[in-house]
Amino acid sequence: MAMKIDLLPAKIWTPRRVLGAALALAALVLAGLAFWDSGTPPDNSPRTSIALAVLGDSGSHSYQDSLSFPPGSPDRGGAFRTRTFQWTEVLARLRGNELNLGPWVRWGQSNQVAWLRHAIGLHVGRTPRKEDYLYNFAVSGATCQSLMGGRFRRYSQAPRLVALMDHDPGRWRNGVVVIRIGNNDWSAVLDEQARDPRATTVRAAATYCVQQIAAVIRLIHTAHPGTRILVVGTDNGANDPTAHERYRSAGALANIHTAFDDFNAQLRELAGSDARVAFFDLDIWFRNHWGTRGPDGAPAFKAVPIGENLQVTNTVGDEPSNAELADHHAGVVWNALWAQSLVARLSEAFGLPLTPISDKEVERFVTAS
Residue 359 pLDDT > 60, yes or no? Predict the structure, then answer.
């Protein structure tokens, strides 16, 4: 005789039950997102220092960030990473008593959590999570779209910086924001620049970056009208060591220079329209230190002396005698010299009471590093 088994009645998933479960799950997710808030780290530094914030890409992302680049990672800082500093790290060590980048913190949200928190109207903070100075929002790989964030504002550096500034508006009445971004956009069209300096893709890249930087300036000054803004030009890709064997003709090099000058002219015009905004010409700065290529495109760069024992060439390698690291980011000498020039430019453009960084200070810093 067959055994009779009584089965419990199956739960019937009616539309009402499905809706209830979905609402319960949504409430749980919202509660989790609200709880998952790292907060804003306090800045208890002296009010006499000048607040300095950074929007940018890998050219400004600190090398000592052990969250984004764990110790031993080949992606950042090179073989001598613990002694190779990015320009904000140099500035904090040499003029941290005058220019305040905020405390060194582990802070921020992952991109996914940040997007969800933004979507439901919660405070986001910095994204992605990284170990850096509080006011440094620069992230490796960022493009001009990262400034305002594009359609979904996934990487919106500027709105999130302004939200942080809103916590302490008094600190930013005399503060400075450095915008140093665009290399990833501009280097992507270097071949097009060599062929036709006014090609559609070249003009589009320049126009888009200028528009995004202009939007950032408007956003910052709407909320913090007294804040100064320094717009930094991009690097001329023809000077990069990776391009030394390319563009070996007078025509190609002239085309690159024409495209680059057009882009710089737009940035300079943007900065020149407001006394609270200034422009830093990175191309002139580079040429003053390392020179340029010859008229036929062949490298004709010079070495930069640091003291009596170090000559720094426009080459690649982790040793400090190279302008660039093996990962093609700026070396410690490049960053120290740029921090020196940045202090001078901020003093010149905005009349800030900053102590110049002397050549001897640069030498001592590089030697100690």
Answer: yes
Residue 319: give the domain boundaries.
48-102+172-368
Predicted TM-score of the model (pTM): 0.86
Cα gap 10→291, rounded to integer Å: 80
pLDDT value for 344: 98
Per-residue pLDDT of 281-309, as tens digits, reads: 999 999 999 999 988 888 999 999 999 99
- Could you give the angle at which helices 200-223 and 157-166 cross, rounded to 10 degrees? 10
Residue at 348 is within a domain: yes
Rounded to whole angstroms, the Cα distance separating 11 from 267 reads 65
Q: Is residue 155 part of a domain?
A: no
108 found inside a domain = no
- Quote the CA–CA distance of 163 and 123 in Å, as a whole number: 8
CATH number at residue 225: 3.40.50
Give the residue from 133, 145, 58 showing the smallest Cα distance to 101. Answer: 133
Q: How many CB atoms lie within 10 A of CB 210?
A: 18
| Number of domain units in the chain | 1
Residue by residue, DSSP assigns 237-254 as GGGSGGGTTS--SHHHHH
Digit-coded pLDDT (tens) for 314-346 = 999 999 999 999 989 999 999 999 999 999 999
75 alpha-carbon distance from chain centroid? 16
Paired strand residues for 277:
229
Rounded to whole angstroms, what are the CA distances from 166 to 41, 162, 225? 14, 6, 12
CB 256 within 8 A of CB 237: yes
- Please give the structure tokens belonging to residue 75: 């992606």
The owner of tokens 């009645």 is: 9
Whether residue 128 is preceded by a cis peptide bond, meaning omega within 30 degrees of 0, is yes
Phi, psi at residue 134, to the nearest 5°? -55, -40
Question: Rounded distance, CA 97 to CA 60, Å?
Answer: 20
DSSP annotation of 36? -
| Cβ atoms of residues 157 and 140 within 8 Å | no
Give the Cα separation of 202 and 101 in Å (integer): 34
Q: Is residue 355 part of a domain?
A: yes
SS3 for 215? helix
Higher pLDDT, 5 or 126: 126
Nearest to 89 by CA among 128, 53, 60, 51: 60
